[in-house]
Amino acid sequence: MSDGKRYGLELYRRGQTWWARGRVEGEERYYRESLGTHDEQVARAKVRAIEDEARKRAILGRDAPKPEDQLTLSGAALLYPPQGRDAGYLARVLLEIGDHRVRDITPKQVKTLAKKLYPGASVDTWRRQVVVPVRAVINAAHEDGICPPIRIKAFTKNERIAQDRSRGKDSGVKRKPGSWEWVLAFKSHADPRLGAMALFMFTTGARITQTMEMKRKGDLDLFRKRVRLPAAKGHPAQWVDILPEVAATIGALPKPEGKLNQERVFYYAGRRSGWFYREWKRACEAAGIEYLPPHAAGRHGFGTEMIVRRKMDAATAAQQGRWSSAKVLLDTYAHAEGGSASVQEAFQDGLNDARTKPVQGKTAKYRRDAENKGTRSA
Questions:
Q1: Is residue 1 part of a domain?
Q2: Are residues 87 and 139 in the same domain?
Q3: 149/282 same-domain check
Q4: Which of these three, 167, 195, 220, is where a domain ends?
Q5: Number of neighbours of residue 19 by Cβ within 10 angstroms
Q6: Same structural domain for residues 273 and 184?
Q7: C-alpha span between 163 and 220 (Å, rounded)
Q8: Which residues are 31's β-sheet partners?
Q9: Domain for residue 111, yes or no?
Q10: What burial class does residue 77 get, using C-beta atoms within 10 Å of its C-beta: 0-12 exposed, 13-18 middle, 19+ buried?
């Protein structure tokens, strides 16, 4: 017998986000809550999951299984689909453990799977292509109270050494950063768009994805010599000042014809095809310079130029380059140059300064005694 209430959740949008409202049969509460997604298919999947769980509770009462008892990794990935490259990485994982319940997945199992899927890869690849996407999907579901979280410790130093020995190759090798000399040589032999991109990334610290996503309408203000960088790595979209040389280079780019994206600042729609990197490598070969990938030439070059070559304080460089902290900049992006030779030169300079500096008292006596002793020995 009907109680006069209408059941069934209704989907609706508030801004870009999908919400649900209404009643589910078997429960008294009235739902009105965000589903936390911009994707309609994901939103519908979440609604079905809510209604299914409510029916189970209505029929089985206390014996109804809890959501965290039934959620599989594939189910979690459907509710919280990963973005970008993580989606491709997770696809391989799901073929192996997609039907496993999230509550049964252990950190050790995830790390072991990484070794199985990529036996000849580095521990950095294991982390990036298995640990990171699995952890992101599970913990996203946990934030909504659907399942317990997962915490996966980093691979140890001994694990890294053992894997490097097994594959006969060192991992974690420091990237070689770009420099003014490298950028100018590259720019003089590259397609104008590629050359402009290299100059822009080196002088702003922008990431390649941000550089390609910027649009001429809304993100480019050549009159004020600034660009609006898209959000990335937890940093919001923001306006960034650019050098007059960079503004002039961008302004002089010829409008291309054909398949290139007419709306983007540098006219590239993306870098997923091998064509982009082939052109980048070809420019390096034409210029007779070492091949540096875009991230090393740009963002790593920015960090090293500011900290090592121009001696800028780390706090300012990290803020302007949009790093989360000065420590991240110093640990990863500021590459030491000169090595042992520069250290020896610094000590030699210190010794020369000490020898020419006037001294008094016992120190002067010790120096005279040492010099006299050296003269007698000679």
A1: no
A2: yes
A3: no
A4: 167
A5: 18
A6: yes
A7: 46
A8: 22
A9: yes
A10: buried
For residue 350, the model assigns a pLDDT of: 77
Does a structural domain hold residue 255? yes
- Residue 201 and residue 229 in contact, taking contact as beta carbons nearer than 8 Å: no
Full residue range of the structural domain in which residue 370 is found: 342-377
Mean pLDDT, 10 residues at a time, the chain of 378 residues: 63 85 75 78 77 68 56 84 81 90 93 95 94 93 86 92 90 83 96 95 94 93 95 86 95 78 82 79 96 95 93 92 89 78 74 69 56 55
Asked if the structure places residue 173 within a domain, the reply is: no
Q: Distance (Å, rounded) from C-alpha 56 to C-alpha 47?
A: 14
Q: What is the pLDDT of residue 1?
A: 40
Q: Using the 3D structure, point to which of 167, 200, 232 is the last residue of a domain.
A: 167
Domain harbouring 265, CATH code: 1.10.443.10
3-state secondary structure the chain: CCCCCCCEEEEEEECCEEEEEEECCCCCCEEEEECCCCCHHHHHHHHHHHHHHHHHHHHHHHHCCCHHHHCEHHHHHHHCCCCCHHHHHHHHHHHHHCCCEHHHCCHHHHHHHHHHHCCCCCHHHHHHHHHHHHHHHHHHHHHCCCCCCCCCCCCCHHHHHHHHHHHCCCCCCCCCCCCHHHHHHHHHHCCHHHHHHHHHHHHHCCCHHHHHHCEHHHHEECCCCEEEECCECCECCEEEECCHHHHHHHHCCCCCCCCCCCCECCCCCCCCCHHHHHHHHHHHHHHCCCCCCHHHHHHHHHHHHHHHHCCCCHHHHHHHHCCCCHHHHHHHHCCCCCHHHHHHHHHHHHHHHHHHCCCCHHHHHHHHHHHHHHHHHC
One-letter identity of residue 262: Q
pLDDT at 376: 53
What contacts 177, CB < 8 A, 6 or more positions away? Answer: 292, 296, 297, 300, 301, 303, 304, 305, 333, 335
Domain count, the chain: 4
**Size of the chain, expressed as the number of residues it contains:** 378
